[in-house]
Protein backbone atom coordinates (compact mmCIF):
# COMPACT_ATOMS: atom_id res chain seq x y z
CA UNK A 1 0.00 0.00 0.00
CA UNK A 2 1.25 3.45 -0.87
CA UNK A 3 0.15 6.86 0.31
CA UNK A 4 0.33 10.27 -1.28
CA UNK A 5 0.52 13.31 0.98
CA UNK A 6 -1.44 16.38 -0.05
CA UNK A 7 -0.69 19.79 1.46
CA UNK A 8 -3.47 22.33 0.99
CA UNK A 9 -1.69 25.67 0.46
CA UNK A 10 -3.68 27.47 -2.22
CA UNK A 11 -5.45 30.18 -0.24
CA UNK A 12 -4.63 33.87 -0.01
CA UNK A 13 -4.31 33.70 3.79
CA UNK A 14 -6.47 36.79 4.28
CA UNK A 15 -6.65 36.38 8.07
CA UNK A 16 -2.92 35.69 8.18
CA UNK A 17 -1.95 38.64 5.96
CA UNK A 18 -0.31 36.63 3.14
CA UNK A 19 -0.61 33.21 1.52
CA UNK A 20 0.43 30.69 4.17
CA UNK A 21 2.53 28.81 1.62
CA UNK A 22 5.13 31.55 2.31
CA UNK A 23 4.81 31.51 6.12
CA UNK A 24 7.86 30.69 8.20
CA UNK A 25 8.44 29.58 11.77
CA UNK A 26 10.47 31.77 14.13
CA UNK A 27 13.62 29.86 13.08
CA UNK A 28 13.01 30.72 9.41
CA UNK A 29 11.85 27.27 8.28
CA UNK A 30 8.86 27.29 5.96
CA UNK A 31 5.68 25.87 7.44
CA UNK A 32 5.28 24.09 4.12
CA UNK A 33 8.60 22.31 4.62
CA UNK A 34 7.60 21.22 8.12
CA UNK A 35 4.32 19.75 6.90
CA UNK A 36 6.01 18.04 3.93
CA UNK A 37 8.59 16.45 6.24
CA UNK A 38 5.84 15.22 8.60
CA UNK A 39 3.96 13.64 5.68
CA UNK A 40 7.06 11.96 4.28
CA UNK A 41 8.30 10.70 7.63
CA UNK A 42 4.74 9.61 8.50
CA UNK A 43 4.58 7.23 5.55
CA UNK A 44 3.74 9.18 2.38
CA UNK A 45 5.99 8.13 -0.50
CA UNK A 46 4.97 11.11 -2.59
CA UNK A 47 3.85 14.64 -1.62
CA UNK A 48 1.76 17.08 -3.64
CA UNK A 49 1.37 20.74 -2.68
CA UNK A 50 -1.80 22.46 -3.86
CA UNK A 51 -1.12 26.11 -4.69
CA UNK A 52 -3.28 28.88 -6.10
CA UNK A 53 -2.80 32.43 -4.80
CA UNK A 54 0.44 33.89 -6.12
CA UNK A 55 1.01 30.60 -7.94
CA UNK A 56 4.19 31.61 -9.80
CA UNK A 57 5.92 32.63 -6.58
CA UNK A 58 4.54 29.56 -4.80
CA UNK A 59 5.92 27.22 -7.48
CA UNK A 60 9.39 28.61 -6.82
CA UNK A 61 9.00 27.84 -3.10
CA UNK A 62 7.71 24.32 -3.76
CA UNK A 63 10.61 23.63 -6.14
CA UNK A 64 13.10 24.20 -3.32
CA UNK A 65 11.71 21.21 -1.39
CA UNK A 66 13.10 18.46 -3.61
CA UNK A 67 10.83 15.61 -4.64
CA UNK A 68 7.56 17.49 -4.11
CA UNK A 69 5.13 18.30 -6.90
CA UNK A 70 3.01 21.43 -7.19
CA UNK A 71 -0.63 21.13 -8.24
CA UNK A 72 -2.32 24.39 -9.18
CA UNK A 73 -5.92 24.93 -8.11
CA UNK A 74 -6.85 27.45 -10.79
CA UNK A 75 -10.19 28.06 -9.07
CA UNK A 76 -8.65 28.47 -5.60
CA UNK A 77 -10.76 31.59 -4.97
CA UNK A 78 -13.80 29.30 -4.61
CA UNK A 79 -12.41 28.18 -1.26
CA UNK A 80 -11.04 25.09 0.40
CA UNK A 81 -13.13 22.78 -1.76
CA UNK A 82 -11.16 23.81 -4.86
CA UNK A 83 -7.92 22.82 -3.15
CA UNK A 84 -9.32 19.46 -2.06
CA UNK A 85 -10.55 18.70 -5.59
CA UNK A 86 -7.22 19.72 -7.15
CA UNK A 87 -5.23 17.69 -4.64
CA UNK A 88 -7.30 14.55 -5.14
CA UNK A 89 -7.14 14.97 -8.93
CA UNK A 90 -3.35 15.19 -8.65
CA UNK A 91 -3.25 12.12 -6.43
CA UNK A 92 -5.28 10.21 -9.03
CA UNK A 93 -2.24 10.53 -11.31
CA UNK A 94 -0.11 8.59 -8.83
CA UNK A 95 -0.02 4.92 -7.86
CA UNK A 96 -1.14 5.71 -4.31
CA UNK A 97 -4.11 3.91 -2.83
CA UNK A 98 -4.47 6.44 0.03
CA UNK A 99 -4.14 10.20 0.34
CA UNK A 100 -3.20 11.93 3.57
CA UNK A 101 -4.44 15.52 3.49
CA UNK A 102 -3.20 18.33 5.73
CA UNK A 103 -3.36 22.11 5.46
CA UNK A 104 -0.15 24.13 5.38
CA UNK A 105 -1.07 25.91 8.61
CA UNK A 106 -0.26 22.94 10.87
CA UNK A 107 3.54 23.24 10.99
CA UNK A 108 3.65 21.61 14.41
CA UNK A 109 2.06 18.38 13.18
CA UNK A 110 4.45 15.52 13.96
CA UNK A 111 5.10 12.56 11.69
CA UNK A 112 3.76 10.28 14.44
CA UNK A 113 0.26 11.75 13.95
CA UNK A 114 0.47 11.19 10.19
CA UNK A 115 1.62 7.60 10.72
CA UNK A 116 -1.17 6.83 13.19
CA UNK A 117 -3.91 8.26 10.97
CA UNK A 118 -2.47 6.56 7.90
CA UNK A 119 -2.40 3.17 9.66
CA UNK A 120 -6.09 3.57 10.52
CA UNK A 121 -7.11 4.74 7.05
CA UNK A 122 -4.73 2.90 4.75
CA UNK A 123 -5.93 1.16 1.64
CA UNK A 124 -8.36 2.01 -1.11
CA UNK A 125 -11.42 1.77 1.13
CA UNK A 126 -9.81 3.52 4.13
CA UNK A 127 -11.23 6.65 5.72
CA UNK A 128 -9.77 8.14 8.90
CA UNK A 129 -9.24 11.49 10.60
CA UNK A 130 -7.23 12.72 13.52
CA UNK A 131 -9.15 13.89 16.56
CA UNK A 132 -7.82 15.74 19.57
CA UNK A 133 -9.76 15.14 22.79
CA UNK A 134 -12.71 14.21 20.56
CA UNK A 135 -12.35 17.42 18.47
CA UNK A 136 -11.93 16.73 14.70
CA UNK A 137 -8.63 17.90 13.23
CA UNK A 138 -5.87 17.13 10.77
CA UNK A 139 -4.64 15.14 8.97
CA UNK A 140 -7.21 12.94 7.25
CA UNK A 141 -6.55 9.74 5.31
CA UNK A 142 -8.81 9.02 2.37
CA UNK A 143 -8.65 5.81 0.36
CA UNK A 144 -8.70 5.96 -3.43
CA UNK A 145 -12.21 4.46 -3.53
CA UNK A 146 -13.49 7.68 -1.91
CA UNK A 147 -11.57 10.30 -3.92
CA UNK A 148 -14.17 11.01 -6.61
CA UNK A 149 -17.00 11.00 -4.07
CA UNK A 150 -15.15 13.38 -1.75
CA UNK A 151 -14.31 15.70 -4.66
CA UNK A 152 -17.97 15.76 -5.68
CA UNK A 153 -19.15 16.41 -2.11
CA UNK A 154 -17.05 19.47 -1.24
CA UNK A 155 -18.32 22.98 -1.92
CA UNK A 156 -17.19 26.53 -1.21
CA UNK A 157 -14.96 26.93 1.79
CA UNK A 158 -15.81 23.52 3.22
CA UNK A 159 -13.57 20.51 3.11
CA UNK A 160 -14.38 16.84 3.59
CA UNK A 161 -15.86 17.14 7.11
CA UNK A 162 -19.41 16.24 6.10
CA UNK A 163 -18.27 13.33 3.94
CA UNK A 164 -16.06 11.97 6.72
CA UNK A 165 -18.93 12.20 9.22
CA UNK A 166 -21.55 10.60 7.00
CA UNK A 167 -19.25 7.79 5.86
CA UNK A 168 -18.12 6.72 9.32
CA UNK A 169 -14.47 7.74 9.08
CA UNK A 170 -12.39 6.13 11.80
CA UNK A 171 -11.73 8.69 14.53
CA UNK A 172 -8.07 8.43 15.50
CA UNK A 173 -7.31 10.02 18.86
CA UNK A 174 -3.98 11.86 18.64
CA UNK A 175 -4.05 14.21 21.66
CA UNK A 176 -1.26 12.18 23.24
CA UNK A 177 0.98 13.11 20.30
CA UNK A 178 0.06 16.75 19.57
CA UNK A 179 -2.56 19.40 20.34
CA UNK A 180 -3.86 19.63 16.74
CA UNK A 181 -3.56 23.41 16.53
CA UNK A 182 -3.56 25.32 13.28
CA UNK A 183 -2.40 28.89 12.84
CA UNK A 184 -4.87 31.38 11.36
CA UNK A 185 -3.39 34.75 12.32
CA UNK A 186 0.01 36.26 13.04
Automatic annotation (TrEMBL):
Residues 5-168 form the MobA-like NTP transferase domain. It comes from the Bacteria. It holds the Pfam family NTP_transf_3. PANTHER family: MOLYBDENUM COFACTOR CYTIDYLYLTRANSFERASE. This is Nucleotidyltransferase family protein. It comes from Microbacterium schleiferi.
Amino acid sequence: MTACGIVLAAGAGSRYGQPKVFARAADGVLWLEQVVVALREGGCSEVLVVIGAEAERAVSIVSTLGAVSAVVATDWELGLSASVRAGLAGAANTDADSAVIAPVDVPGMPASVVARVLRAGAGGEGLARAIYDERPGHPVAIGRDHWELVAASVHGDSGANRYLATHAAVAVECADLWDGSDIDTR
